[in-house]
Sequence to fold (364 residues):
Amino acid sequence: MGRRPARPRPAPPAHAATAPSAHHETPRPVWDHRGPARDGGRRCGRARDLCRCRGHGRCGRWERPLRASRTHRESHRRTRATYTRLMPPTDDATPQPIVRLRAVRKAFNATPILRGVDLDLPTGETTVILGPSGCGKSVTLKHIVGLLTPDEGEIWFENTRVDQTPEHKLGPIRRQIGLLFQLSALFDSMTVAENVEFPLLEADEGTPQDRAQRVQEALDTVGMHGYERRLPAELSGGQRKRVALARAIVVRPRVMLYDEPTTGLDPIRADGIDKLVVKLKQTLGVTSLVVTHDLTSAKKVADRVVVMFHGEIIAEGSYDDMLRSEDPRIQRFMRGEYHAEDDAPAAQGERAPAPTQRERTGAA
Fold:
């Protein structure tokens, strides 16, 4: 009995001969990757998750049309998700702010502290707030984390308005923010490991073994391996800062807030803290806000510098932009020159409302 004549191979789809299209163009029909087909289709030869021939002709081969089955719809949905992750960022992409302050005002008794502050924290960047003592830098930081509420204005964390969120619902936001206090704020009666583990216990995260592993990872990151059983009284000032930083990053925050991180440290220890700030940005990709009046520290860590004076932001840009500024207030600050105007009392006449429940209990 003679052999059955070979079936003629159908012509390839029209898109197979076209040039590869860009990622952002509308994709062409999806093609199956299940292997040799009875109707003459050919196998792509690449793993399903890595194949880019879907509507783009990248591999120079063509496939038979995908049949409408639930299994393959699911598989190609995963393929499209992988495809999206592989898309390179466009050149004109700019970091979007993860934290936004709009026209924020705050007064204590009759003294205004913040006078219409507008501030953005671009994702993945380190922003430094420079300014003399008492200008409102730390008060701004406390508003971001929700320890204070503004008298006027708006505070946003992504799409959530922090100043209008009830206290009992702020937990999910605060768990995405790490805070390094100016004086470290370690618990004297707890060991180093217990201090670092404390926020994990408060959030009831993981098993004891998981928490121990995360504590060890955080201590390794800040160079404090081997100090787990020591008490804060047995540590130097720089070591206490490192432990406090480990406690802040153990929750794996997306935003880090540093309140005068180099205060009270000698230049060598201060440089160590500065290098840790840069390291956390590079390795963890955190968005950082550093409040300081240490010019050396600001120059080392800042992607962007904001200058605050008497509760107002008077300039922003790079560190070199501040050095070239013609504003006499900025010139005096950058040169470290005293002027009586810098100590001028705040204007009177603005009275603050009675403290809210959050302000009475939130700082505890």
